[in-house]
Every structure is written in structure tokens, then in C-alpha cells.
Amino acid sequence: MTDLFSPAPMDNILPYDGQVHDLGLVIDYPSPLFYNLVTELPWQADVVTLCGKTHTTTRQIVWMGDEGIDYRYAGHVRQTIPWTNTILSIKQHVEQQLSDIGIEASFNSCLLNYYPSGDDGMGYHADDEPELGAQPLIASLSLGATRKFVFKHKKTQDKVALNLESGQLIVMRGDTQTFWKHSIPKTKKVTEGRISLTFRRILTL
Ligand SMILES: O=C(O)CCC(=O)C(=O)O
Ligand SMILES: [Fe+2]
Fold this sequence. Notes:
- The chain is of the alpha+beta class.
- It has a single domain (19-200), classed as Sandwich (Jelly Rolls).
- It contains three helices and 13 strands, in the order βαββββαββββββαββ.
- The chain has helices at residues 30-40, 85-100, 176-179, and strands at residues 19-25, 44-50, 53-65, 71-73, 76-78, 109-115, 122-125, 138-144, 147-153, 159-164, 168-173, 180-184, 194-200.
- The strands form three sheets. The chain has a seven-stranded antiparallel beta sheet with strand order 1-11-8-13-6-3-2. The chain has a four-stranded antiparallel beta sheet with strand order 7-12-9-10. It has a two-stranded antiparallel ribbon with strand order 4-5.
- A hairpin with a 5-residue loop joins β9 (147-153) and β10 (159-164).
- Fe (ii) ion is lined by residues 125, 127, 182.
- It comes from Psychrobacter urativorans.
């Protein structure tokens, strides 16, 4: 279903210096999927080092990916676990949705984030690690509670915000990570959990 006010998938959400597309709701029954993933996956607190201090987050993560792929960010090496059937079929569905609008993707890893409530968030960062390449293509699928997603330009500080609903798919590409940071702000208004599946391609040399 489309209405006059929903953006076309190829519209660019960013005004300049990058490309973000909103593919809308792409999952028919997101809530059983959300509860399955909350219960079935081996969630672990994330460990982040900022300014030399190591913190464990209340946000929970799982790294999944092809065999032999591991990933390092914020100074830590992440071990990946093999694809589950569920996540592999979501990955194929996401790749198909992208292909339908002319974006060819073949992801080899996925960082899953679980935010148990609005008390959990993710601070401003760019996914600009060298192993993601110069212009990373990152697809993000949301499940569960609606949360605000905010982009902030690194130089101009301009902000662009959108709400991400259960079953909604967005994709970041081009220069987005070079020029913009993004975050999931904490909020007192949300008491329910949310999961994001962020599909990426890690370059192996
Ligand atoms: O939960 C989200 O939608 C954002 C996740 C994110 O930025 C990341 O995993 O790098
Ligand atoms: Fe990110």
C-alpha cells in the first residue's frame, strides 16, 4: 500500500553528502519474529572503549556472519556466530528488496542490536571502519518498538531524524558514513524492546 505521504524508496532522506533510502515496511508478521529473536539468540552486552575507558552496555548484541569473518570496532574484535536459518532468510529477503530498487547487495555479516527499553540507545557514531570499505552499504531492519533514528552531519551539525517502525527497512550508502554520524537516542517514552538487524559486507583481503 502506498499513500501520498510515504516516500518513494529511491528518495534520498539526506539533503547532501550521502544517501539513505527508506524502503518502508517489508516484513508481513514482524512481532512473532521479534519475540523469536529475543528468546532464541545468544545476546551479550556490548563492550565499548571510549576515551580509553571500557564500558559494557545495556544494549545487547549478536554478531552473525559467514565463516571466517570477524569484525573489530571501538578497539575490540568481535567473534561472529554462524547464520541461523531465520536470519539467513531475512538476509535473502533484504537483498531481494534492495535488488528490486536497483541496489545489488551481498552481505557477509550482520550486527544485531537488542534495546530492551527506551533506557537503552546507541550514541552518535559512523560505521566507517576500514574493513567496511570507502562507501559501505549498510541495510538496517527494525523489529519491535518504534524508535527515533537521528543523523547528524559531522561538519555542519545538521540533523535529519526519522522514526523506525517494526518491519521497516532502511539502507545507508555512498558517502553517508564519511560525512554523517547516526544514533538511537534514549527515550523515557518507550518501554518496549526493539531489535535492529544491520547487514554489512566486511572486506577480506
Ligand atoms: O539500531 C539501530 O537502528 C542502529 C544500529 C547501528 O547504528 C549499528 O549497529 O551500527
Ligand atoms: Fe551504526
